[in-house]
Amino acid sequence: MGNDVAMQPRQVVLTGDRPTGRLHLGHYVGSLKNRIDLQERHDCFIMIADTQALSDNFDNPCKVTESIVGVCRDYLAVGIDPTKSTIFIQSMVPELFELTSYYLNLISVARLERNPTVKAELQQKSFADSITAGFLCYPVSQASDITAFKATLVPVGEDQLPLIEIANEIARRFNRIYNRNTLVEAQAALGKTQRLVGIDGKTKACKSLGNAIFLSDSDDVVKQKINGMYTDPNHIKMSDPGTVEGNVVFSYLDAFLEDRDELEDLKARYRKGGLGDTTVKSILADTLHTLLSPIRERMALIKDNDVWDILTSGSAIARGVAANTLSEVRDAIGFGYDKIRK
Ligand code: ATP
Ligand code: MG
């Protein structure tokens, strides 16, 4: 899918991650791989969403601020190239928050509460009774992020689809009410694996659930995590026939084993009986070693100062683009007072 998207006519791409920890394999297959393809032919903006991360970490801002360098280091190590993609920090582009003020009028609270992604996150974060306005409204801020860059493509995992829908609703409403074509709608670019399950078998590998294999995990940690993965509870003896569906090790092999013939062969042997969990797990460990060891090597060479240089200059570029859109938005509403006086 990544390659198909990369072949489309030149587009503006906006995507990002919350700095709530290091990036994991879910990010890699859900979004990072697509970004690496897309940056070759498109204008890519990659945002480290510190303000959004604050919405459920406002009482622990250090977690957010201290995660920024790590997220950017992960980007660079997987192959995001700062000469091709603009990497920036959300809070360094304050224009985004003015846009949010205007967009908040364009969506109802009921619509925000119906959002399945927010609903799932609320359950997971268990602050059901004390949901803050900031958390409920983060999809509106995400609409600002997307529209500020006039993004047409957003490489994301499946969990983000309802949020892109909200952004598009806001864009359409804005254009209709203020009678302009200022804002553009965006389309999701889903990765080949749209949702990587957690190592605990939960529906999504996630930083906050601590159920992910991180790109920065050492071989030993990766092996430990693989050893703890659920397989098929009825596959007790090696000779027992096993089930591949819902088997976490096979979900990961599906996502990462490039040799598809080998994968099909493994599945057939596992289903028939005679292939042990230990063997399948060690194949997964080898596969992930091949993927992650060059990434980890590159990570080790990246210096904090270089990361900050990239983020500072990227944020200045992003700010210029967002300021242009903000100016158009203000004009559309009739707030272009500076122009009236001239
Ligand atoms: P947090 O727990 O802080 O929400 P997260 O692990 O969900 O962290 P995000 O920063 O929210 O990660 O997500 C960044 C991007 O990565 C989004 O586009 C999201 O869809 C994608 N993504 C995250 N986890 C997965 C996953 N398990 N499978 C596929 N895509 C994923
Ligand atoms: Mg998330």
Summarize the structure.
The protein has 342 residues and is mainly α.
Question: Can you describe this structure?
Answer:
The chain is mainly α and 342 residues long. It folds into 2 domains: 2-197 and 304-341, HUPs (Rossmann fold); 219-299, Tyrosyl-Transfer RNA Synthetase, CATH 1.10.240.10. Helix content is 55%, strand content 7%. The chain contains 17 helices and 5 strands. It has helices at 2-6, 25-38, 50-54, 61-65, 68-78, 95-103, 109-113, 116-125, 133-136, 138-148, 161-177, 219-227, 248-256, 260-272, 277-301, 304-333, 337-341; strands at 12-17, 43-48, 85-89, 153-156, 187-190. The strands form 2 sheets. Strands 1-2-3 form a 3-stranded parallel sheet. Helix 2 (25-38) links the parallel strand 1 (12-17) and strand 2. Helix 5 packs across helix 15 (277-301) and helix 13 packs across helix 15. The longest helix has 30 residues, at 304-333. The protein is elongated. The model has no long low-confidence stretch (mean pLDDT 93). Residues 17-18, 20, 26-27, 30-31, 156-157, 159-160, 195-196, 204-208 line the site of adenosine-5'-triphosphate.
